[in-house]
Amino acid sequence: MSTNRTTRRGARLALAAAITVAAALTAPPSQAAPATDGRPLPGAPGLGDPLFPLDGNGGYRVDRYYLDFDWQAPKTPFEAATTIRATSTQALSRFNLDFAGNTLHAVTVDGARAGASREGDELTVTPKSPIRKGSSFTVKVTYTADPAQTRHRDDAIEDYGWIPTPDGTVVYPQPNGARMIFPSDDHPSRRAPVTFRISTPADRTAVANGKLVSRVEVPGGRVRWTYDSEQPLSTQLVQLAVGKFRLVESEGPGGLPLRDVVPEALVEPTAEYRKLTPDHLAWLEERLGPYPFHRYGVLVGDTDLGVALETQTLSLVPKADLLGTKVDAERNLVHELTHQWFGNSVALESWSDLWVSEGHARFYERLYSEAHGGDSLEAAMKTAYAAHDQWRKDFGAPAEPTEPNLFKRMRYDGSALVLYALRERVGDATFQKIERAWVSGFKGRTASTRDFVDLASQVAGEDLEGFLRPWLYGAKTPPMPGHPDWVVDPVT
């Protein structure tokens, strides 16, 4: 996600173990490990993430989501069904789904009516018969979706959930708003492919992550659009949008299919900057290696919400970002494209690892901008260095966010500064090797801060724990390698 706006706006193994122990000590009793004798027990209602303990669920693995939406009109409730094909990882007497708002109708497991109860964002499902460990099972939830349902955060996210547009809707699921769209295993470490089946009036177009599989006219003057995400994705990266769109197709490097989704009135006004995507892809591939997915594109958001979002293979960029200056537009476009490698292909193991994703997106955004008419990377990092102790106090160290401060400045420029310091410490050639090893070695997987420190040490041929830990977890900002004159401002 990018916070640039044109109109406004690990540790050692001991530390990892300590985090795990702390989560276990604070978790509800039902999050205890399943019995070893094979007796069916409830699946955990959350994964114990230090920031969002109840996000995600235990006891099963989602193999695929099928989303069926009968979209009607902006801000108008519509009938929806989510079918989840899953595999149990323990014997289950019951299990949970993350599901917020929306009017629940019925839940079935393998076609049989199941018990269902709701408390907060937790939907507890009790199947007619217990589910054996290692079994495949299918859950279907029918409900009335509310496409005007949003929540608010006092950080860079602002509003999230269903975001209405003048003639449709777009989706902002980050950080944990997917549960407002569909019942799910809503944590960034949990990934699964998604099939989208969205019916709309004939004068509307539906889009979603991945590939358009079919467009079929159905009774009532409507059209059913089917999309396949093609590759697994985290729930925070789901995108589906409906509106009076034009699909603008082109090619990127190596013939990569590009598809921009643009409100009809914005096709020409945004064309100049959208046409830069092939250049952005080529620039990033030169530094990071091949683009990790089968296609890409930009969804132009016809909304006043000034937040861009790295939804997988289809980055959501607000119209204001594409109607301002070229420097500002390219910063946001490169930022969200960089996320396709960092945060999308290599997913977060926990929300405390967000610095890896946002720090890299900001680092490459600024590196690109420096060479294309923007401010100096060094100057930007010197400014961030001066403020770093204050940010540590206000927002937590880069790898130690608190929930209210998750998407504050430290996770952006403050985390890019960690990468800048690493590059200054090991040299540009070794830094580039680390980056390429990260995106290739963890492609299609989840990874943590601990993984990053270990990999950087391996590639550099030296233990970087002692260097990186103070940068990532310390209360004070360490000296910047190669810049003894840089000074940190006093904390107020």
UniProtKB/TrEMBL annotation:
<dbReference type="Pfam" id="PF01433">
    <property type="entry name" value="Peptidase_M1"/>
</dbReference>
<dbReference type="Pfam" id="PF17900">
    <property type="entry name" value="Peptidase_M1_N"/>
</dbReference>
<keyword id="KW-0482">Metalloprotease</keyword>
<dbReference type="InterPro" id="IPR042097">
    <property type="entry name" value="Aminopeptidase_N-like_N_sf"/>
</dbReference>
<dbReference type="InterPro" id="IPR027268">
    <property type="entry name" value="Peptidase_M4/M1_CTD_sf"/>
</dbReference>
<feature type="compositionally biased region" description="Low complexity">
    <location>
        <begin position="28"/>
        <end position="41"/>
    </location>
</feature>
<feature type="signal peptide">
    <location>
        <begin position="1"/>
        <end position="32"/>
    </location>
</feature>
<keyword id="KW-0031">Aminopeptidase</keyword>
<dbReference type="GO" id="GO:0004177">
    <property type="term" value="F:aminopeptidase activity"/>
</dbReference>
<protein>
    <recommendedName>
        <fullName>Aminopeptidase N</fullName>
        <ecNumber>3.4.11.2</ecNumber>
    </recommendedName>
</protein>
<feature type="domain" description="Peptidase M1 membrane alanine aminopeptidase">
    <location>
        <begin position="283"/>
        <end position="471"/>
    </location>
</feature>
<keyword id="KW-0732">Signal</keyword>
<dbReference type="InterPro" id="IPR001930">
    <property type="entry name" value="Peptidase_M1"/>
</dbReference>
<keyword id="KW-0645">Protease</keyword>
<comment type="similarity">
    <text>Belongs to the peptidase M1 family.</text>
</comment>
<dbReference type="InterPro" id="IPR014782">
    <property type="entry name" value="Peptidase_M1_dom"/>
</dbReference>
<keyword id="KW-0862">Zinc</keyword>
<dbReference type="InterPro" id="IPR050344">
    <property type="entry name" value="Peptidase_M1_aminopeptidases"/>
</dbReference>
<feature type="region of interest" description="Disordered">
    <location>
        <begin position="28"/>
        <end position="52"/>
    </location>
</feature>
<keyword id="KW-0378">Hydrolase</keyword>
<feature type="domain" description="Aminopeptidase N-like N-terminal">
    <location>
        <begin position="64"/>
        <end position="236"/>
    </location>
</feature>
<dbReference type="InterPro" id="IPR045357">
    <property type="entry name" value="Aminopeptidase_N-like_N"/>
</dbReference>
<keyword id="KW-0479">Metal-binding</keyword>
